[in-house]
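Because discrete structure vocabularies remain unfamiliar, we first show an illustrative case, written as a sequence plus integers encoding its fold.
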Amino acid sequence: MTAPDAADPRGSGRSSGSPGPDAGRRAAVLGHPIAHSMSPALHTAAYRMLDVAIGYEAIDTTLDQLDEVLARVRAEDGWTGLSVTMPLKGGTAERVDRLDGRAQALGVVNTVTVDGPVGERVLTGHNTDVDGIVNAVTHAGVRPGLRGAVLGGGGTASAAVAAMAALEAREVDLFVRDSARAANVRRVGRKVGVELTFCDWDDAVDQLPEADLVIATLPPRGADGLAAAMVQAHTAVRSGAVLLDAAYDPWPSALADHWARAGGVIVPGLEMLLYQAVEQVRLFVPERFAAGTASGGTGTEVDETALLDAMCDAVGLPRRE
């Protein structure tokens, strides 16, 4: 999963079920549960800073409801894009009209762009989770050539493996409870050229301290048992070793708390959410990032640091340095 999103402090629009018929440009995050989504706060802040009128809401959507919601998006005016979180990433990839190169390689989608008029609508799937991971850990000081580890075998684990490739990881250990359920992660590893070693979940207590970067892709509290075992074993970690925990509510997670106490650096999933949301904004309003009016742009250059700072302010993250 992408980090299970947390509550929008601004009270941005949110709803349950299918999108309504509101006029104007629209976007939304789909997932279940979605009541604690930070995506509306991030996107609303971005569009306000960019002076673009887009309404962004959270729509609680189960996999059984996904076809209905996508049908409404195809049939209603105004839609520009969708953010997609658990448990819809694989199902969305199977239902869109097109996949960009990365989404096709990963087999999972966290972003959908909507193009064309009603009746000729084209939904294209993208994956910005890789950007979110790479930029979040790079901001925390991670450099290429590392030894990595990934916890979990779902859609975000696939993105994590692709991120490890982008970070030129020498080797990557994958810790899963059931290797049969991580077949897509194995496929992605081969596709992006990462040498994956499948490890038994119970070995994580002893082996995680050997990693320079650990990416936990489990649901909230999914690593609490592992954290308890590491506490009991008095497990230390390398000084400066980084843990990115995609589940950021509650924060710090039990695993992040132990990691920090044991000497490591922790990165909340909210950082990942920030950076993947920035890439979604680029996809949803490309005209604001185009070079000039001749290419369909506004002719004004976006201050990307100011954009990031506005989004950070909306969710309580430190401004960028």
